[in-house]
Design goal:
By secondary structure, this protein is mainly alpha-helical. A 3-stranded parallel beta sheet has the order 1-2-3. A 3-stranded antiparallel beta sheet has the order 5-6-7, with no helix packed on it. Helix 10 crosses helix 12 and helix 16 crosses helix 17. The longest helix has 20 residues. It is elongated. It binds one RNA strand through helix 1, helix 7, helix 11, helix 13 and helix 17.
RNA sequence: GGGCCUGUAGCUCAGCUAGGUAGAGCAUCUGGCUUUUAACCAGGUGGCCAAGGGUUCGAAUCCCUUCAGGCCCGCCA
């Protein structure tokens, strides 16, 4: 059984409405690992629905969380915002409502592309509108119990005057620098490091925030959460999950949600980029270079507790190939290989939107990577494909959109991540090269040969061999000459296919110019 | 110190949530092909499933122990 079905069955033992939650703090570019959280939850959600369960998928953005420090990608001037809720901080680019929105919006757009449609909650709105008020009051009334729970389970010593609430200073706006001096419902008196002191009324929303270890369980109760996965960093003994379970059950009188712990996604082949420079692969980049169904496949094909290595180099092409193979097996165009597990479910869960009813037209992704370097954009690529009869004339709109989308991903990948060995550029003019006598001889026969053939890959391929043999020129030299003249480099894609994808007249004209 | 994951062919891994003949890709070898962006086609070689014990008619698969590696936690969230 597929892992998502196993989790769904577990939930279905309780016959009630299930709220499946994901929560990510938009304090920086949304990370590749966060993709796993949302796709893991979505997979369970879909399984629940397909089994007839009543379920809702929600996403809580904790945008009331405070800025921890000035991250490397922020200007130094952000120093003054450290400690303030990220929804109160101005947007780094100036085009969004707040710092939080800046990162949140791009993530929400990404969700659309991978076909995840959760109900969105924003913590800052929940606090400000007063949704949290009851939870805050209950927490404050149970300060000692909560303190004991946290100290016992996390083995951490809390300050004597600790209360489960961080007041936001009404002068400097920070929630990290205040200290409560007196609580008498509904008022909290506080002093702040900035020199300010004052009093807040917790019946007014947004005057402060529950600390994380209390905020999380309070949210479970408030939103009736029944399932929420989290990364292995939170799953540790004595961590927020452990204290949260105790707090939600003892203080908020609500059963702790079921969960799954997921492993992190590592990056491969990026060398300096992720470790030394401290720049991680953002969800946005991940999505720009990976077709959405392939990204979903990466997650659904692996158990959550399995650590994944994402290879943004040539490995990405293999991943796409693997997905395409799964698709062929799903539609019975190919035999399944032994050990292919839950292939039907995996394929279905990999679809961002509707599951295709018939086998979608496939074009090898590697070939697309070559074509997009000849055609630059989809319309050009499409012309080539039609001319060379590599796609049928009656391609459906969906199939065309799918191919188009894939060329866009391939294109982004080529720009940002592809190794040089797969890159080339059809030069606008004849590159400056000194051709040997041998090469000129070969090219002359080759041009003649080309003029008389039908412009098809195999014919072109044969023409290369015929011409090189005729004058007894090494085949390596023949290939090299062609690549030099068209691409300005010594190697290139399989020559016959490659040339046949270019315009015949263009090729002949270019070759003639080169030997002039 | 604690937790999670991993250990299967030379390499990367699937198979473990159905206990029932050990699987793929790459590499290698053979044959074919007028070698071209990790070429293609057909076939072959290759494994004491980390080690030891247990459960079972039967274990890569379930349980226990040991060894080895990776990651996370032991600031804050």
């Amino acid at each position: 059984m597929h892992w998502a079905d196993v989790l769904a069955d577990e939930l279905l033992k309780e016959n009630k409405k299930h709220i499946l939650a994901t929560g990510i703090t938009p304090s920086g570019p949304i990370h590749i690992g966060n993709m796993r959280e949302i796709l893991t939850t979505d997979a369970v959600y879909r399984c629940l629905l397909s089994k007839g369960g009543d379920a809702e998928l929600i996403y809580v953005a904790d945008d009331f969380d405070h800025l921890r420090k000035v991250y490397p990608y922020l200007p130094n001037s952000y120093d003054k915002y450290v400690g303030m809720p990220i929804s109160d901080i101005p947007c780094p680019c100036g085009n969004h409502k707040s710092y939080a929105d800046h990162y949140l919006i791009s993530f929400l757009n990404a969700l659309k592309e991978i076909g995840v449609k959760p109900k969105i909650y924003r913590a800052n709105e929940m606090y400000k509108s007063g949704n949290y008020n009851d939870a805050i009051q209950i927490a404050l009334e149970n300060t000692n119990k909560i303190k004991e729970i946290i100290q016992k389970i996390s083995k951490r010593e809390l300050p004597k005057d600790w209360i489960p609430f961080n007041v936001k200073c009404d002068k400097c706006g920070r929630i990290t620098s205040t200290k409560a001096t007196l609580y008498e419902y509904p008022f909290i008196e506080y002093i702040c490091d900035c020199g300010n002191s004052g009093e807040v009324d917790i019946k007014n929303g947004g005057v402060g925030k529950l600390p994380w270890r209390v905020d999380w369980p309070a949210r479970w109760k408030m939103l009736n959460v029944t399932f929420e996965p989290f990364g292995k960093d939170l799953g540790t003994v004595g961590g927020a999950r452990d204290t949260g379970k105790e707090i939600v059950e003892k203080i908020y009188d609500y059963p702790a949600p079921k969960y799954a712990v997921y492993e992190f996604i590592m990056l491969k082949g990026m060398g300096a980029m992720h470790s030394s420079k401290g720049t991680a692969l953002s969800a946005e980049e991940l999505l720009n270079m990976t077709p959405p169904e392939v990204l979903r496949f990466l997650i659904t094909n692996n158990q959550p507790d399995k650590h994944l290595v994402f290879d943004s180099g040539l490995g990405l092409l293999n991943l796409v190939d693997e997905y395409d193979k799964l698709e062929r097996v799903y539609f019975e165009k190919e035999e399944a290989i032994k050990g292919m597990k839950d292939l039907k479910k995996t394929y279905e869960l990999s679809q961002p939107y509707d599951i295709p009813k018939t086998f979608p037209f496939q074009l090898p992704y590697r070939h697309l990577v070559t074509l997009i370097q000849i055609g630059q954009e989809w319309n050009e690529v499409k012309k080539i494909l039609l001319r060379t009869k590599q796609i049928p004339k009656d391609l459906t709109k969906d199939e065309e959109n799918h191919l188009k989308q894939r060329t866009e991903h391939a294109s982004y990948w080529l720009d940002k991540f592809a190794p040089d060995m797969v890159k080339f550029e059809v030069k606008k003019k004849v590159p400056k090269i000194d051709l040997t006598e041998e090469q000129v001889k070969f090219l002359s026969s080759f041009i003649k040969k080309l003029s008389s053939i039908d412009w098809e890959a195999e014919n072109v391929h044969n023409a290369i061999y015929d011409s090189s043999q005729k004058d007894n020129i090494p085949i390596k030299t023949a290939f090299k000459s062609i690549y030099q003249i068209i691409l300005g480099q010594e190697k290139g894609p399989r020559a016959g296919y490659f040339l046949s994808n270019l315009d015949k007249e263009f090729v002949i004209k270019r070759l003639k110019e080169a030997i002039k």
